[in-house]
Task: inverse folding
């Protein structure tokens, strides 16, 4: 193990390390802690210039209550859910199929198609912006959730295919050959042999794509406007102009907007990290 | 093949060609979606960049063909030059996330009680959306209310207005971007460190290697896969920077924080006008820069694929 395990060091070093880690963590998260502290202060503190002293009162429930009751925030959050969940299902479904085709079969152009997915996944969004916006307008899907979902599914299929194909490649190929010898139809091999083995990959991808899509801002701005279809990342801008300079409410609003992927991460940590570090350990 | 004889003819044809047909059918929906929304639009953008077009009506009817005109205009555009230069700064400074992430990973790669919770708390800025990171940091930098200036004053230094100063603003935004990116690199390295061969470490230790020499000659070479992925995601992240700029400064002050991705959006879709052709030309330049890196990534992956086949 590198660096040398702290247990092999003198007692004083161990104590110093144990003390240093929490201090480093607080410094690391300082900007965020500041926002969290802002979000429980009353407005009066800001007008009195009491930014960092002891709060004159704790307004956790008032501030967060106002975010939910006096703004469009709940609508934006719900839009985000309605955009994110179908995208996750669509992208994972499509990439299970493409990953299976590219991971199991040998045919001419296999690697070419695979590399097309990878390359497309790295492209800057701006090169797609004008044509995708045009296409969405032509399909009468501008400013709808469906318009965003369709694009996200298509784009995420690139990354998901990379992930799924590599995962399927690492499965024991003998299983598939054995099934073929038994005369099992190819689609049955997919459904009954490969798919059950892909569960960890599906979980990892689902968590990862959920976070990516929930946090998307660029496409939300390009393909939607207004509270009918906008997800929370774009909605927070209008939220902030509604409560301009009221830092306690703006802080509370951005914490609410950030919470779902954070919760997802802490609940599904193992899958999340398995997804992110794909290939880093092989 | 004897099996096929017992089957009805049409099923027989499908069965005989199943090794070609199955992958084709499985690929079809994914490839179709990807082609319509990703591959074809890339070529369309190249095409649109040769037009002057405000995005209304059909390109061929309402737009005016200008050939390389948009690109010639870019050459003399001061704002384009500033954006391009800022992209270079982003690329160079964003790479600091890699050593930064490695440093934190080495710091946290211990087995003391509660270390798992510390690791996830160090990582979690990456899960926040860039919009929230942008807001958090713009409040952190606020001249009066911000924590940064509160700390500076505490240590007896002059307060600074990071985002209001044209020479500082871009660096302020990059610092905000480095926060989640470093967390990402850290998690890559933590996983990589887990896979480092303990026997090699022990052998090197017996040979008297330790500290920096051990890190440089024994550990870092074994972390190559993690470093490659960290490099890929950091380069892509640097060139994609848009959200932070849009949220923190909206390109200002005086356009000093624009990058190509942001300038393109401004030209094509914001209140500064709907110049789709000119915007597409900027996007093409950005795409070509990215293409250099994409080609390198694909080449590395292709080499690996070839080795895996042997």
Result:
């Amino acid at each position: 193990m590198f660096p040398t395990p702290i247990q092999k060091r003198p007692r004083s070093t161990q104590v110093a390390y144990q003390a240093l880690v929490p201090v480093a963590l607080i410094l690391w998260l300082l900007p965020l802690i500041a926002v969290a502290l802002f979000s429980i202060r009353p407005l009066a503190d800001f007008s009195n210039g009491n930014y960092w002293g002891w709060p004159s009162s704790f307004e956790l429930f008032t501030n967060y209550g106002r975010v939910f009751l006096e703004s469009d925030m709940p609508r934006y959050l719900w839009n985000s859910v309605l955009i994110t969940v179908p995208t996750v299902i669509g992208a994972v479904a499509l990439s299970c199929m493409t990953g299976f085709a590219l991971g199991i079969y040998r045919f001419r152009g296999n690697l070419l198609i695979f590399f097309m997915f990878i390359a497309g996944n790295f492209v800057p969004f701006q090169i797609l912006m004008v044509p995708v916006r045009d296409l969405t307008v032509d399909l009468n899907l501008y400013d709808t959730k469906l318009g965003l979902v369709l694009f996200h599914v298509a784009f995420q299929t690139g990354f998901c295919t990379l992930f799924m194909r590599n995962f399927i490649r690492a499965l024991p190929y003998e299983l598939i050959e054995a099934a073929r010898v038994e005369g099992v139809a190819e689609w049955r091999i997919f459904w009954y042999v490969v798919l059950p083995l892909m569960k960890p990959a599906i979980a990892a991808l689902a968590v990862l794509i959920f976070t990516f899509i929930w946090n998307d801002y660029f496409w939300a701005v390009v393909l939607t406007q207004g509270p009918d279809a906008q997800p929370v990342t774009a909605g927070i801008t209008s939220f902030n102009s509604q409560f301009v300079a009221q830092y306690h409410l703006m802080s509370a609003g951005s914490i609410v907007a950030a919470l779902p992927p954070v919760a997802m991460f802490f609940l599904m940590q193992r899958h999340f990290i398995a997804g992110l570090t794909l290939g880093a350990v092989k | 093949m004897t099996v096929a004889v017992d089957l009805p003819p049409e099923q027989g044809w499908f069965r005989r060609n199943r090794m070609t047909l199955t992958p084709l059918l499985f690929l079809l929906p994914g490839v179709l979606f990807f082609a319509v929304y990703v591959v074809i639009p890339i070529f369309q953008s190249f095409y649109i960049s040769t037009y002057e077009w405000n995005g209304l009506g059909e390109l061929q009817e309402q737009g005016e063909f200008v050939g390389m005109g948009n690109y010639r205009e870019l050459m003399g555009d001061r704002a384009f030059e500033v954006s391009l230069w800022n992209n270079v700064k982003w690329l160079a400074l964003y790479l600091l996330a890699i050593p930064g992430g490695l440093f934190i990973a080495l710091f946290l790669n211990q087995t003391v009680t509660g270390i798992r919770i510390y690791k996830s708390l160090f990582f979690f800025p990456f899960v926040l959306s860039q919009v929230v990171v942008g807001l958090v940091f713009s409040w952190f930098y606020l001249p009066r209310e911000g924590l940064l200036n509160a700390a500076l004053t505490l240590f007896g230094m002059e307060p600074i207005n990071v985002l209001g100063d044209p020479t500082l603003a871009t660096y302020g935004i990059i610092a905000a971007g480095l926060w989640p990116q470093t967390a990402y690199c850290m998690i890559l390295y933590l996983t990589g460190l887990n896979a480092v061969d303990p026997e090699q470490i022990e052998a090197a230790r017996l040979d008297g290697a330790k500290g920096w020499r051990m890190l440089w000659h024994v550990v870092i070479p074994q972390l190559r896969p993690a470093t490659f992925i960290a490099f890929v995601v950091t380069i892509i992240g640097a060139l994609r920077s848009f959200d932070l700029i849009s949220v923190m400064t909206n390109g200002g002050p005086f356009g000093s924080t624009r990058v190509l991705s942001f300038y393109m959006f401004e030209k094509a879709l914001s209140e500064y006008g709907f110049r789709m052709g000119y915007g597409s030309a900027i996007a093409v330049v950005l795409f070509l820069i990215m293409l250099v890196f994409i080609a390198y990534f694909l080449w590395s992956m292709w080499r690996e694929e070839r080795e895996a086949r042997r």
